[in-house]
Amino acid sequence: MKKYPNVSVIIVTFQEYELTEKCLESVLNSTYKNIKVFLVDNCSDEKIYKSFYKKHKDNKKIEFIRSKKNLGFGGGCNKAIEKINEGYVVLLNNDTEVDKYWLNPVIDYMEKHPNIGACQPKIKDLRRKNYFEYAGAAGGFMDVYGYPFSRGRIFYTLEEDEGQYDDIVELVWCSGTAMIIKQEVFREVGLLDEIFFMYGEESDLCWRINHAGYKLMHIPESIVYHKGMGTMKKNPSYKKVFFHHRNGLILLLKNYTVKEIARYVSIRVLLDGVTFFYYLIKAPHNLNWLAVIVSYINLFFLLPQIIKRHWQIRKVKMASKSLAPILYKKSIVFDYFIKRQEFFNDLPFYKNHR
Question: pTM (2 decimals)?
Answer without folding.
Answer: 0.93
